[in-house]
Specification:
Length: 135
């Protein structure tokens, strides 16, 4: 028997839920972390994360994905016009966190330390990832 249109739409909505579909996922990468680019024209470059764009699942990395913007001079004269270089966001899936102990880009596991805090553990060397104080 043919299902009505409403039942088909409900089935599609249920299937759409999840991280891979339009929901924002919490990022393991934060401001101040060192990452390596995995894909794109800047593949292999390393840089420090300047900021994260959570709703778009992107990160801005210093020295990676440099673009040029043509800017008009400000009306009050405080902004000089010309061509300005800026760091554009990179997709979160295209960068990988660099381990603080072994210095290699690797996947990170989630773990709980002896003191009960959640932390990241390097999948390559097994050491706990430590962040700098400034992040």
């Amino acid at each position: 028997m043919m299902k009505n249109r409403h039942e088909k739409q409900q089935k599609w909505v249920r299937r759409k839920a999840g991280w891979s579909r339009s929901e924002t996922r919490p990022l393991d990468i934060r401001k101040g972390d060192t990452v390596e680019v995995l894909a794109g024209r800047d593949r292999g470059k390393r840089g420090v994360v300047m900021r994260t764009v959570l709703d778009r699942q992107k990160v801005v990395v210093e020295g990676v994905n440099l673009l040029k913007r043509h800017v008009k001079a400000g009306t009050e004269g405080n902004l000089q016009g010309g061509i300005v270089d800026f760091n554009a966001p990179v997709a979160y899936a295209n960068v990988q966190l660099v381990c603080s102990s072994c210095g290699k880009a690797s996947r990170m596991r989630h773990g709980v330390g002896a003191d009960g805090r959640r932390n990241l553990i390097c999948a390559r060397c097994g050491e706990e990832h430590t962040r700098s104080i400034s992040s």
